[in-house]
Structures
1.
Amino acid sequence: MPVGGCTMLCVLPLLLNTVLGFKLCPSHCLCYESSDLVDCRSRGLVWVPPSVPHGTWLLDLSGNKLTEVRTRSFVGLWSLKILLMSNNSIQTLQPQSLSSLEFLERLDLSFNQLRWLPQDFSQSLSSLQELRLDHNLLQHLDSASLGEFENLRKLDLSYNRIRAMDVGTFSGLSRLSLLNLEGNKLNVLKDGLLSRQQSLEVLLLGHNNISAIETEALAPLRSLTLLGLQGNQLQHIRFKTFLKLQTTTTHLQMSSNPWICDCELQRVFVKIHRVRHLLVYDYKDIICHAPAQQAGSSLASLDSQLCVTETASVLVITITVMLAVIGALVKAEHNRKNKQAASDAESDGQEK
């Protein structure tokens, strides 16, 4: 009997495909029915395979040759919880490429070639808790692409090429507990960037180019337990900036920076040590870069010498100035007396 210009024989395969979509396994992949896992690792795949069983909760596509993820590549995979696509050559995520993944909890896109994220990147991923984007080529982040990750706990953006981030980049990530930005090209940690991260416990900023931390940048981080700042371009820091960290206990990693070891720097670290909840984890590894006479010495080994030397220098300068002033006063008084004597002698001569 015809159905829309086609016999039931035409419609039957379509119906079977729809029904069996829960059972079919993509060619070159391994499907484990008992656990709903689909293993497509290192199969030489150049696109996301069709016919992934609809009941799949873990899909592993890592180690393939994917260069892009096309629109609606995962349509129908409502049960998917974990999607692994690391170690491919992905350059582009097309719009709506991750649509229908409302229940996805973990996404791994590390070790790819992504230069940017689409504006709708977070729109269909409201359940996501862990996102890995490390070891890509990202240069800039904005709030549009990350704005709807309201349940995200862990975000790894390490070893990209990020130079700048909009102040509102992380404004929608209020439940974030770990943020890894190591190995990028950041220059300044700005006020307001982490204004919504009261739940953040670990902030890793090591091996960037950070030379300045603005005064209020760390203030919102009420739960921070670890702050990694090693391997940056810090020469001086302000005590007030770290005093803003009102936490229970925060470990600081500060080594491998080009520190200018002077009395001011030593005083800052002495003050930090006096704050019970701030612990400089690698204090003994903080090495002086300048001045020349201190280069290569650890700040800890100098103890209070820097301030003693500075105090001695100040005293020498003060004494020198005082002696100069006294000398000037003595000379002035001497000149005054000479002038007075000359004036008196001239007056006596005129009287005679």
2.
Amino acid sequence: MSVSELKERHAAATETVNNLRDRLIQRRLQLLDTDVAKYTAAQGRSPVKFGATDLVCCRTLQGHTGKVHSLDWTLESNRIVSASQDGRLIVWNALTSQKTHAIKLPCAWVMTCAFSPNGQTVACGGLLDSVCSIFSLSSTADKDGTVPVSRMLSGHKGYVSCCRYVPNDDAHLITSSGDQTCVLWDVTTGLKISVFGGEFQSGHTADVLSVSISESNPTRFITGSCDTTARLWDTRDASRAVGTFHGHKGDVNTVKFFPDGHRFGTGSEDGTCRLYDIRTGHQLQVYQPQGDGESLPVTSIAFSASGRLLFAGYANNNTCYVWDTFLGEVVLDLGELQDSHKNRISCLGMSADGSALCTGSWDSNLKIWAFGGHRRVI
């Protein structure tokens, strides 16, 4: 069989697969006769109400001199690491606002950072070097703030967009990249364990932008990509994605597992957040701001401890909507509160105990928001 004939057969097979995929998506849409919001409203549930002091800015973390791109909490919810365009990682005491470490990075174009589960190391990655660097917080810095790199995870062929430690496992970490792949690393040796995507047909077909690992089942993780899809993976089988989730019309900038581990949320360049169920593969709800204006890209999302609230940052000034996930309504905008950010909120994260939310912004500051009046959302 000639090369031209093989190409024709491949093109025909590809078209057949795409047609079947489109038919499957349309069939799923036909089966979706309701969504979470319609069902909840039919049960007579009312949206969450916020008073003037129910969510307040209790700390402003100042120290960066460039845009803040990423942040992460420790499991103890008492420290935060942030990465900024100023080329530094800063570790903060979330209770006192004091800086405990200021690490000067070899490459200033950092995009992501993460705390290890034991809180003893931090990881970061970025645009230019395509490397995920590991720093030990017990290492001594020189007078310029330079901390020696304890491990460099090198192997991606594109920028490192996101890195996350496997829950309760300091020795393993997952990175996503602009080379369309994710990699599971052995941090102790610096070697790859598994590569997800790439030459496999079930992998992403464009840059992978975000990773979220399930707390309840650490062998599973979700990825979001510029190919407009989110995909579910299992670390025990890197040869294929467990599931592919459609619905977005733009890049999927951010993904986050729901607290129960059975669902996950996404935020996209198309201006919507969506909630999916990994057991059925169905989309449960779309969270889209009302209005006739231009759709605002979603930059980052986080769920409250119970999952009742979805926090979403948008690429428009200081907008950060708080959604009631049951009713699909905006119940609060952090940008309208006192002491809010002065520029785009680029990243956000909920503390492990659910007591506080941290937001990072292009105004070079981070802010910690706490539920006032001893209130805890359920």
3.
Amino acid sequence: MAEAGGAAARPAPRARAGHVSIIVPVHNSERWLDECLKSVWEQDFEGAMELSVFNDASVDGSAEIIEKWKIKLEDAGVPVIVGSNDSSQPRGVGFAKNQAIIQSSGAYLCFLDSDDVMMPQRVRLQYEAAIQRPNSIIGCQVRREPLDSTERYTRWINSLTEEQLLTQVFTSHGPTVIMPTWFCSREWFFHVGKFDEGGKGVPEDLLFFYKHIQKGGEVFRVNQCLLLYRYHPQAASHSILEETIWNHRVRFLEDRVLSSWTSFTIWNAGKQGKKLYRSLSSANQKKVTAFCDVDEKKITKGFYTYEASEERPKPKIPIRHFRDASPPLIICMKLDLTGGAFETNLKMLNLKEGRDYYHFN
């Protein structure tokens, strides 16, 4: 089994049918890596499986832990490919994932973050789902560690319906199946294109997910908890600015939804709704016929004036009660936060998600 000493990309080995590569990018992960790699060793998958690790300039004990598990896994019949960036500067998660994929050979890719832990049946169950869905990203349900961290987000991950996996792709939560649970075919991965390698501050999983959707990709979730998903301050996702994510989301919404609508209402005449309006292209701003809300003060005021506009007179957008709103709607309300009041109001209107409204909360 060849070791990749540097970061130079080499041609991808030919994929072997029915063969799964577990893709693990590593950067200073010694605190969790032992448990992570042990979960590879504990998989009950009976097909051919390999582990592909790319160590991105770690300066802790990660390399030693990888070496220890390489011996153990290969003794158990699981080949291990180890690549590394030996410079003093890490190249980032997108680069490390791409390198781990390039040096691997499986017909299927199972993504695993170095701080997470797989349940023993993960590879088996996701492989069974993936062979029937060649152009899908397959996810799964998760258990958060610590248990009480990001409760709303975890509920959202685990409870989206099959339809919502495609309709709720515009929310601030990001991909409807989270990247550490992804499983897909190698062929589909390269059809979509590799991860963005911009490094720190780039939401490489969100950008890949958007490209996947734009190319007609589907999303499927195995409805079992197959991953222990850790939350901690060192996680790479904390380095991404909220504004960066916001801008990508707005452009994606404009491309996928607003481009085919001639007019729409924004649900939320408060801060978030106005921010969305101001973020839209001028062509899409002109399509906004009204804001809607439940706040009597805002409704009584009657309209929102876009003061920053260079147009004369400045645009004035009516503010209506949500019961008087005309679909389609872009909803800028946070879900699962009002004790069910917002959800009840929405249900009252008998609208269909994905046709009459989309969430952009």
4.
Amino acid sequence: MKGIVKIAITQPLGVSTRQLTLVRVPSGVSEEYIASKVQPIYKKKGSLKIVTYLSPSLVTKGEGNDTTSLSCLAMFESLQLKAELEKTILSMVEMLRSSGQNSSSLYIAVDLKDENFGNKGCQGSFINGRKTCYTAHDIIQFLKKIRIEREATIYLTLDGWHDSLNSLTEIYPNVHTKETLVPADKVVPFLSPETYVYKKIIDYYICSSSDIYIPAKFDHFYMTVVGERIATGERIVLEPAESDSKNGADYISPYMLRKSHYAYSCFC
């Protein structure tokens, strides 16, 4: 981003040290939105902390959602991992790739979190009549339905373990979580409650680099991982669905089939 965006490494002189006013701004808003919603607050307060969030409508390519070269740089080139964290993640990915029973064994990442256990976490998760959240039991049945080989290596984004997953290890014995992969000397800096953000980063990169990615919930994390996979050429994303088909190709993400994800505007 050097020469494109001016970034202050240290806080400029004259900027107030008091707590900044937080303003939430959706990604991709117009100049008119900034002028009417943000600028008045800035004029009144003098300094702001702006938090942006990605609206689902902006993830899909379409009229009015044109992606500029600058936004592509910001999304896919502006942030880099610290050396220690990058080395740890690469070692975890290598462990996943080498832990299969043979060289052709698949490495599958499943985004499965606490909210996917039991039925309460997925209640009411429908968009236009389509289910957008699946329980741990649903995911186990989905893996069986599409006939994922027993030799496959499966990574779960879950923190810790749930006894209900014991049935998964009976079918697929090579199952891993962060806790089974992170080196002992990296547990405190990367997996402690105080460094929770590192857990999300680890999950993000492991899910982005897997042979197959399966989301249990179609949320913001899912959308950003899909974008990263498009950027790096890892295209196989399977969305669970209430279908009788046993063919994995029938569950490929619509983002991939229709090339409708905003990342395709950056990587033709």
